[in-house]
């Protein structure tokens, strides 16, 4: 049988045409549309750190105020700071969710204010009989109470920034309070007092707590000194958040109670 180029060319052309049809169909298919409502659902998630995170900070602030108010520290200064924290919370609630940045900063101010009050409350706790403090190092024995080599604890930091450049390297039960006092002293030296308002109250109360912490340290009550120093540190941080929130002192009225509706759904039946 005699083969000719035409007989071989026809099947080749047919095969090439089929491949083009298949390829063109795959490439030409339109992209699948998104599921109905999916685009809106993705949009409702919001940006990272947006209203959802702000709501979490508000919840934390609310829980913190509620908890510290049950057993608030005694004294006019502590009561004044707690009232300021309540005002910050009301203002944050008003700003949320339209102004998430301001709401978030005010909520953080509440959390630092409450944290300081919690440290202040713990500073008055008394040791529990028969329960010694743990060692500073996980594997090491408790340090001697009379300081390294019986020389006593190092003195508290001097006034001014970096007041402990030549401090000894020995560690002991005084170390956490000494570290906290040193960091706090540096922070106070580099911070200007706000002229008035809530910021001034937090600053002055922080300075007072710092002086009390120094006294406690010098008398050997290192645990109390550390708690007071941490309280002062938390209150100084409140002003940082107030500055970023452009706080003007307007706390806004208390939040109105939620309107009464049908109420919560009933509980599921008890299974025997």
UniProtKB/TrEMBL annotation:
Keyword Signal annotated: yes
Compositional bias annotation for Basic and acidic residues: 31-55, 159-168
Entry keywords, A to Z: Signal
Secretion signal span: 1-26
Keyword field contains Membrane: no
Compositional bias segments (type: Low complexity): 178-189
Stretches for region Disordered: 26-55, 124-201, 246-272
Coiled-coil residue spans: none
The protein's name in its UniProt record: DUF4398 domain-containing protein
Taxonomic source organism: Gemmata obscuriglobus
């Amino acid at each position: 049988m005699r083969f000719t180029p035409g007989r071989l060319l026809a099947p080749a052309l047919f095969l090439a045409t089929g491949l083009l049809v298949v390829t063109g169909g795959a490439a030409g298919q339109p992209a699948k549309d998104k599921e109905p409502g999916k685009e809106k659902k993705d949009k409702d998630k919001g940006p990272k750190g947006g209203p959802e995170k702000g709501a979490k900070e508000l919840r934390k602030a609310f829980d913190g105020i509620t908890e510290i108010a049950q057993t608030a520290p005694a004294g006019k200064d502590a009561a004044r700071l707690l009232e300021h924290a309540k005002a910050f919370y009301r203002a944050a609630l008003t700003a949320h969710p339209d102004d998430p940045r301001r709401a978030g900063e005010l909520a953080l101010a509440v959390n630092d204010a409450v944290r300081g009050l919690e440290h202040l409350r713990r500073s008055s706790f008394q040791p529990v009989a028969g329960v010694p403090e743990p060692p500073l190092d996980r594997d090491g024995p408790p340090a001697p109470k009379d300081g390294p080599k019986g020389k006593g604890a190092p003195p508290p930091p001097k006034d001014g920034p970096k007041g402990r450049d030549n401090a000894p390297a020995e560690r002991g039960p005084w170390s956490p309070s000494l570290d906290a006092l040193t960091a706090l002293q540096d922070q106070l030296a580099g911070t200007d007092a706000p002229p008035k308002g809530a910021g001034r109250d937090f600053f002055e109360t922080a300075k007072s707590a710092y002086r009390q912490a120094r006294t406690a340290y010098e008398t050997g009550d290192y645990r109390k000194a550390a708690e007071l120093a941490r309280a002062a540190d938390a209150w100084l941080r409140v002003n940082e958040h107030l500055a970023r929130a452009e706080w003007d002192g307007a706390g806004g009225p208390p939040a109105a109670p939620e309107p009464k509706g049908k109420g919560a759904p009933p509980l599921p039946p008890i299974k025997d």
